[in-house]
Design a protein that fits this description.
By secondary structure, the protein is of the alpha+beta class. The protein has 18 helices and 22 strands. It is globular, with a radius of gyration of 31 Å.
């Protein structure tokens, strides 16, 4: 063995091994080989915030094996991922295995023979600025977590946690929920004329009166709407103006980490965590480029290959004269990186023949998005027709696809409306006049995709943090998912309000984004990480000491209105680290307790019972009952595990699906 190549995962090692010739050995570190210790701060506040790294038990054998293999090699190539996390892992391998001499760092954004050969020809040293940026993030987040979490244990209850990014994400969800609850709907009315020309019916909406535009909320009551309808009963409807044009819609940029997570959530119903796990597998198998990126750049070779495939598969009309170039608008985006794309754009999903259905779906999505990004714009024939009736003006809009362009490979829902042939002065046959009552709607709850988009827009977090942040706030019980929407739990409100009141700077959107910018400065070599951490921690630690006395213990117990069946004292809804339960207010003398069922769960139980009715299990005849699993409530057979029949609980007016 002349050369040793060290990567993070066995799957990645196996793929790289296929492209390297004799004389190369490839080993996996299995991720991080050193980290801050569990159960203690692990940061020396008095010694310039020096981290105390420890080697987990599972990594000791790995480091020993790497050290032994490195001793037999002339050169050790550290081929961990190309982001800050990967740079830090490379450094930890060197430090943990005490490697000396012949150490080279190589990076590549795709696992192909060409990329690996090029990386080995162009090695570099470990970039300690990137290592420092990762250390700064790890140390600062540990200081925040180990400062705020114990305070929450004392003032709320044990087992809670707080974090620089996760707490801001919870704040977004909580504030959106309060917007929804405090929203006061306003009534408004819309008026639509049903007209006919050449035996073709079409709709036209009222838009103006006396040449003054009617805004959405101008018609406030049914009385006002009826007055307009009465005034128009004997009106003639004459075309006043026709505007026709061809519009175009350009394709989206290829995926970044954020946009991939958003689109996979919307189109495939994948969670961000699931998306990143699958993308990691595709990357390590050499099928896509690196999946943690905020850049929309594409390499010239990939663009050339994509254009050749588009011309051969769809024809020249689908290929723009020049390649499309995308620039990300995000601050701090690393333009040297590439967007997420297939390693070889010519490899269509059908040719890849991926056996795992979820992997195949994600590859298909990534391939279509990248190919579409290099295709011609979609063209639409649009018509805007103004129709006058007395002093009122109506408008009808028509739209149809003229040339599908990129939509051929990356389809979207497009509303098309066909109008009859109309010209100025044409008289339309009046059929009906409809007045429709509407109410303004509150903002929508966040789903996982829209929360990631909001975090990205504020500059909070980076590509590697979105998925774990969304997972953490759900696992901690601050937020739950209902009908794919994120809803704050009661404890989410309590913890958020406490942090906003007493540690407003920690959960301030702009402050959190500014911290990310400082990490970027460290990575660029323009800021010392010890100085940055110190500037944050000194005032933070003082405030922690002060708030120990200022914050009162939060009482989360709520009366149920029921009496304890054993001692007649009031029953309370209590909370432990394992969740909510109902217990006696006479505890510890009376230890009565029972399960707590939330209003939303009770609603699901009632819906399920209505679905069950008098039915028995269709497989074994056993009794169907409502059960709760790790993913929520469902209808299952009472003979489980012998019979594994189940049904999903569907909303009212929909049928239950069986598995």
């Amino acid at each position: 063995m002349e050369s040793l190549v060290v990567v993070e995962s066995p799957a990645k090692a196996q793929t790289i091994k296929k492209y390297l010739g004799k004389g190369f050995e490839v080993m996996a570190s299995y991720g991080h080989v050193r980290d801050l210790p569990k159960g203690e701060l692990g940061v020396d506040i008095k010694d310039d915030y020096k981290p105390k790294y420890v080697v987990p038990v599972k990594s000791k054998k790995t480091l020993t094996a790497i050290k032994r293999a490195a001793g037999e090699a002339k050169v050790v190539y550290l081929a961990t991922d190309l982001d800050r996390e990967g740079e830090a892992i490379a450094w930890h391998i060197v430090e943990g295995a005490k490697l000396k001499g012949g150490i080279k760092r190589i990076v590549f954004s795709e696992i192909t023979k060409e990329a690996i050969d090029d990386a080995i020809k162009n090695p570099r040293d470990i970039d300690y600025h990137l290592v420092d940026a990762q250390q700064a993030r790890r140390v600062l987040d540990r200081l925040v977590g180990y400062g705020l979490s114990p305070l929450l244990w004392k003032k709320v209850y044990k087992g809670l946690s707080a974090g620089r990014v996760q707490s801001v994400a919870v704040r977004m969800v909580v504030e959106r929920e309060r917007e929804i609850k405090n929203f006061k709907p306003e009534e408004y009315w819309a008026i639509c004329a049903i007209l006919e020309k050449d035996k073709k019916e079409f709709e036209a909406n009222l838009v103006a009166k006396d040449n003054k535009r009617i805004d959405k909320l101008d018609i406030k009551s049914e009385k006002d709407a009826q007055s307009i309808v009465n005034n128009l009963k004997s009106a003639d409807y004459v075309v006043d103006n026709v505007e026709e044009k061809t519009s175009q819609r350009n394709p989206y940029a290829p995926y970044t980490t954020s946009t991939l997570q958003q689109d996979a959530s919307i189109r495939l119903n994948f969670s961000p965590k699931q998306t990143m796990r699958l993308a990691q597998m595709l990357y390590e198998d050499g099928r896509i480029t690196y999946m943690r990126t905020d850049s929309t750049n594409l390499s010239s070779s990939a663009v050339k290959e994509a254009r050749e495939h588009i011309r051969a598969s769809f024809g020249g009309d689908y290929l723009p004269p020049e390649p499309k170039i995308y620039k990300t608008k995000l601050k701090g985006a690393q333009e040297a990186h590439e967007a997420i794309r297939p390693t070889h754009p010519k490899n269509s999903p059908e040719e890849m023949n991926i056996s795992d259905s979820k992997l195949a779906k994600l590859y298909d999505l990534i391939w279509r998005r990248m190919m579409a990004s290099q295709m011609s714009a979609a063209l639409f024939d649009e018509a805007k027709v103004s129709i006058r009736a007395k002093q009122y003006l109506f408008q009808a809009n028509g739209r149809k696809i003229k040339f599908e362009g990129w939509l051929k490979i990356y389809p979207e829902r497009i509303t098309q409306t066909q109008l009859p042939q109309l010209a100025k002065g044409d008289k339309c046959l009046f059929k009906d006049l409809k007045k429709q009552q509407h109410f303004t709607q509150p903002p929508s709850r966040f789903n996982e995709a829209s929360l990631i988009k909001a975090l990205e827009e504020y500059g909070i977090g980076r590509p590697s943090t979105y998925a774990p942040t969304i997972s953490t706030i759900q696992e901690r019980g601050y937020v739950k998912k209902e009908d794919r929407k994120l809803v704050p739990e009661e404890i989410g409100f309590v913890v958020n309000d406490l942090l906003v009141e007493h540690f407003s700077e920690i959960v301030d959107y702009n402050f959190t984004a500014q911290i990310e910018n400082e990490f970027d400065k460290i990575a660029d070599g323009n800021l010392d990480w010890h100085e940055m951490v110190g500037e944050f921690y000194r005032p933070f630690s003082k405030k922690l000491l002060q708030k120990e006395n200022d914050i009162e213990k939060q009482d989360l117990n709520r009366e149920t209105g029921e009496k304890c069946p054993e001692c007649s004292k009031p029953l309370l809804i209590k909370r432990s680290r394992y969740g909510q339960f109902i217990g006696c207010s006479g505890f510890p003398i009376c230890k009565f307790m029972k399960k707590y069922i939330s209003e939303s769960d009770q609603k699901k139980i009632d819906e399920a019972n209505a679905q069950i009715g008098k039915r028995n299990c269709p497989r074994c005849g056993g009794k169907l009952s409502v059960r709760k699993g790790r993913y929520g409530m469902f209808i299952g057979c009472s003979n489980y595990p012998k019979c594994k029949y189940l049904e999903r609980i569907k909303k009212e007016n929909s049928k239950a699906e069986s598995d």
